[in-house]
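>> received
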Amino acid sequence: MSAQLVSVTPESFTCDVVLDCDVVTELQLKNLTTSNVAFKIKTTAPQLYQVNPITGVLPPSSMVPVIIMLKRLSRYPDRNNPKEIKHKFLVQTAIYDTADVSLADFWAAKEAQHKPKEGNPAYLDSRVNCQLIIPDTNAPAAADTAALAANTDDASTLRSLLEERRQEYQGLMDYSITQSTNIRQLEAKVTQLESERASLLTSQDALTARIESLRARVAEHDQEREAAAKARSDAALSSGKPLTPAERLTAPVSIVAWQAIAAVVGAFVIGAVLF
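>> returned
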């Protein structure tokens, strides 16, 4: 594996922290291939974020939104502690060509097979950086209240949008998996028909060769039969012995004709002598 299977937008983002309020960010995953691609998302701070969907299948050339929601915080993180304000998301991707295997089993197998240090990765990954923006705690309380109201409305709207897109995405994923299964079944049928056609052509060639062999044997037999008949006729003609009916049937036409003429002439001479 070398080229990326999926593009992730944006590659980094920031979250403005508002106490007691969910903060929502949207990522876009786009399938860059003509195959189904499975994805799985991990984060270095799972206790702070909710990701939806966290795993799924992208149909060929399709796009899916991923909602990353910073959970409500009751206190501000320490802005001087990088571990509290800088987090990462890992987007794992792999070609998904086994529709009869669940995503959970699929990723369990990939994790077991993944050995990048040995040059044998089982999946690709993309990293997305996130930084929390801590507001100035000396700002007026009214500003915090307005920001809280705005973020609450945004979160509600995004939740509704997320549910709609999730349903659309699920429908597309089911349709794509069904079509992939149908395509594999048709390809198997085509392979079977091609095999049967090749077998029939082989049988036809064998029958043709058998027929040609029989024709050659018949022609050879006819030649031998004609040669034997001619030899008998020539021998009879040389000895003056008349041909038997069986020999007449197998004799060449010229000999039979001459013997017929000889018989007529002989009969004419005998008749002339008697009468």
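>> The CA atoms of residues 136 and 144 lie 10 Å apart.
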